[in-house]
Design goal:
It is built from no helices and three strands. It is an all-beta fold. A three-stranded antiparallel beta sheet has the order 1-2-3, with no helix packed on it. A hairpin with a 5-residue loop joins strand 2 and strand 3. About 10% of the residues are buried.
Amino acid sequence: MKEDNGRFWWREQDKPACKKPQPKPGDICPSCGKGSLAFDGLFMLVCRRCQQIADSGAFT
């Protein structure tokens, strides 16, 4: 549902856009800072060292 000003109702109007890059396989873990990120069998980007999930998703 679009509003008259072209914005969507779920987006905050004055909130700045996130400039942080999306994590990708091979990046350093944002949680522990020591492990590397890799996809598991469920398309979750997981740290091999601390097992924290950095991102998740699936291809359609």
